[in-house]
Specification:
2 domains; five-stranded parallel sheet; Rossmann fold; alpha+beta
């Protein structure tokens, strides 16, 4: 490579700052940039451009001053070295807010970028590979859109037509125009009920219904509203499960489609679908908090706190007790389970989260809960959220591909397909691929015998849905 004179009319396009331990990578990178698109780009690379006998400091200063961009090869060695840090500091302070986009971090070996570089998007050679990394770097140097879904080819721009740095940044913000697979957090119901049944009732609340039948009697999902009881169970059957609770003279059967087309009935349908979760939640002895609409475990319920869902990893604890280490709170792994309707089709939506309690076992609310929740979730990446959803699916459904929720006493179920099924979209996020670890066998859940008797009424989200409009 011929040396570049920074005093000439042609200034270097890229000043390359690196540590000696990364010189092999830096040499390969500088060569690839200058060879890209048939040549035309120039890199200030010290082994090529600082002449023997020349003033090293003066040459480097001129290179930094005249270069259109400064590429910083990030690695643990770079962060520990003094001289490259001085080069990067000079470049950063020339554009501290990053408005000019002059500084381009180049992640070679994984490390934590220094504070003044953390808000700048870097090219991750370690994740996306050398060729795609060079293609992105060359696109920025030439002022072209990034080659994400637009193909790796394209006629290079003349140097005089190079777009300003801010234009390249705007182009880089466009999404990939390439197909990608995404995993949603909503899961379809494959056999929704055909009918909703209702009849008048004299009982005023859900607690009265549970008290009427007693704790041993299984009760199908139901909702009370407008002095009527609504259920998926067939109230016209000779031995229907609500005998004695409803008035038999005005039994009404309505189709599923008629309910999803009526806004008020659709709201009740949401409540009724959510009530289908009740028996499964009660069987697992999960508690419910209305504030965050989450299910969680209290201390002293499970014999074993840790469950290993995936082949990799140590498993997940349902309760993290920080009071044992001098702290003043307990973190409970939690999940929000709610049915939603997309058109006429029902889906179960799953969102992971946390619930917090104090040393007395009382749930933490208000600002302190917000602070703790931010502490536990703000740094959590998509892959972690995805694994939390996979964990809860495994725990709720076990080895089955469907979560079967009883809707009457005749064995009919609401089957939620919990097998992960990706959807294809016309765009994607570069480097967001995530390998799935295999699932372990179904969990063996054991409870403490002295966990306490369950209430006659349920602790689910429909506990207060006793009258019309009451949420």
């Amino acid at each position: 490579m011929r040396p570049i004179s920074v005093d000439s009319a042609i200034a270097p396009d890229l000043f390359l700052s690196y540590q000696e331990a990364d010189q092999e990578f830096a040499t390969k990178l500088a060569s690839a940039v200058e060879a890209a698109d048939g040549g035309g780009l120039r890199v200030f690379f010290a082994p090529w451009d600082v002449r023997p006998g020349g003033n090293i400091i003066a040459e480097l200063n001129r290179g930094l001053e005249h270069a259109r961009y400064v590429g910083i090869v990030l690695s643990p060695d770079y962060l520990r070295a003094d001289w490259p840090s001085a080069e990067s500091s000079s470049a950063v302070y020339a554009d501290p807010a990053g408005r000019l986009g002059k500084v381009i971090p180049l992640m070679h070996r994984r490390c934590q970028p220094p504070p003044l570089l953390r808000f700048r998007k870097y090219i991750d050679f370690e994740t996306i590979g050398f060729e795609l990394g060079i293609a992105q770097l060359v696109a920025v140097l030439r002022g072209r859109p990034l080659p994400r879904g637009r193909g790796m080819s394209g006629k290079p721009s003349d140097r005089g037509e190079t777009s300003p740095p801010h234009r390249a940044q705007l182009d880089a913000a466009e999404p990939d125009a390439v197909p990608d697979l995404l995993y949603p957090n909503v899961f379809p119901v494959h056999n929704p009920p055909k009918y909703v049944w209702s009849a008048p009732t004299r009982l005023k609340g859900r607690t009265e219904v549970f008290q009427y039948f007693g704790p041993e009697r299984p009760i199908p999902p139901f909702v009370l509203a407008g002095e009527r009881l609504f259920t998926f169970a067939d109230l016209s059957a000779a031995a229907h499960p609500f005998t004695g609770v409803i008035e038999e003279y005005d039994v009404v059967r309505e189709t599923w489609n008629s309910w999803v087309q009526d806004r008020e009935k659709e709201k009740r349908l949401h409540w009724l679908l959510d009530d289908c979760l009740r028996q499964r939640i009660r069987a697992l002895r999960l508690r419910y908090t209305r504030k965050g609409r989450k299910y969680y475990y209290e201390k002293g319920v499970l014999k074993e706190q840790r469950f290993k869902a995936f082949a990799r990893g140590k498993g997940k604890d349902f309760i993290l007790d920080y009071t044992e280490k001098g702290g003043n709170f307990v973190a409970h792994r939690a999940v929000n389970l709610r049915f939603i309707l997309l058109g006429a089709e029902p889906y179960l939506r799953i969102e992971s989260g946390w619930v917090f309690s104090d040393v007395l076992g009382e749930l933490i609310e208000g600002r302190r809960r917000t602070v703790l929740n931010s502490r536990f979730t703000s740094g959590q990446r998509n892959s972690a959220n995805f694994n939390e959803i996979r964990f809860w699916l495994w725990y709720l459904a076990g080895d089955d591909e469907s979560l079967r929720l009883e809707i009457d006493n005749d064995g009919r179920t609401l089957d939620v397909k919990v097998a992960l099924e990706p959807i294809e979209v016309g765009f994607g996020i570069l480097g967001d691929s995530h390998s799935l670890s295999s699932i372990q066998a179904a969990p063996d859940v054991a409870f403490e015998e002295d966990a306490g008797e369950e209430d006659d009424d349920d602790d689910g989200p429909l506990e207060a849905f006793n009258v019309e409009g009451d949420q």
